Amino acid sequence: MAEMRMRGTAIAAMWRRADPAVTAAFGCIALLLLLGSLYSGSFLSPEYLLQQLKVASFLGVIASGTMIVILLGHIDLSVPWVVAVGGMMATAATGWGPLGAAMAIPVGIGCGVMLGLVNGCAVALLRIPSMIATLAINAVAQGLMVVHTGGFSPQDASSPAMRFIATGQSLFGIPNALIVWLAVGAATIFLLTRTTFGRTVYAIGNRERAAYLSGARTHLVLILAFAIAGGLSAFGGVLLAGYASKAAQAMGDAYLLPAIAAVVLGGTSILGGRGNYLGTVAGVILVTLLQSILSVMQIEEYGRHVIYGVVIVAMLLVYGRGRRHSE
User: Fold this and answer.
1) pTM as predicted
2) Which of 55, 80, 175, 245 is least buried, going by the fewest C-beta atoms within 10 A?
C-alpha cells in the first residue's frame, strides 16, 4: 500500500509539473483522432498515423526555426519565400552536373541561412521591427526567384538525395522525413536546453535589455537565431521539393500560418521567453491532423486560414494576459 501511495504521489507531482498547454495539445490530438475515426476507421490505422507523421515532418522542420524566433519575442514572416528559395535553389543546383546534384541540399539550406542572416542583421543591428524586416526580405526573396525563373514555373528536378530523404524509408519502415525531423528536433532541444545560446534566447525573450546588461551577446544571438530559422525554413523547402520531385514558386505559402499556429498551440508564448520543444511537436501533429480532418470535411483553403488566425489570436490573448500578470 505504501508503494502504491508513493507511485500515486509521483504521478500527481509529474502532472502538476506538466505544461498545461502541452497537455491540452496532446488531449486535442486524441480528440481529433477520435473524431476522425467517426468518419473513417482508417484514421486510427498504423498506416494512416505514419503517413500523417511523415506529412508533419515537413512542417516540423520549418516550425523548429519558427519556435526559436518566437522564443526571442520576434516573428519571422519571411517563411513562405525562404521555403521557396530553399527548394528552388536546391533543384537549380541539380542542373550543374554531378557536383551540383551532390551539393543541392547544402546549396538550398545555405541560401536560407543567408536570408536569415539578413533578417537577423536588420533586427539586431538596424533595430528594424522583425515583422517589417522579415516581411521585406520575403518580398525581396520573391522578386529574386521571379527573376531567376523568368516568371515561369521552375523546370529543374530534385536530386536523388532530395527524393530519398523526403520520400524514402530506411529503418523498420520509418519514413526518412520523420527521421530527419527527429534529428532536427533533438538538435533543437540540445541547443535550447544545453547551450549558452539557448539560455540567452530565453533571456532575450523575457527581457532583452536585462539580458544585454547581464553581459549576454544579444546581437549575436539574434543574428544566429534568425540564420538558424532561415536555414530550417529552406531545409523544409528542400524536403518539399524532394517530396514533389520539383519546386514551385508558391510552395511555401501554405506554411506560414500553420508554423506559427503549431508553435503557439504547443504553449510557446508569442511574446517570447516561454516554451519547450515538446509543445511544438504536439502543435505540429495537432495542426497536421486538423488539416487532414478539414480536408476530409472539404473545407476550403480560406476556411483553414480563418481557423488558424482565430487560434493564434485566442492563444495570444491567453499568453499575453499570463505574461502581464507575471511581470
Assistant:
1) 0.89
2) 245
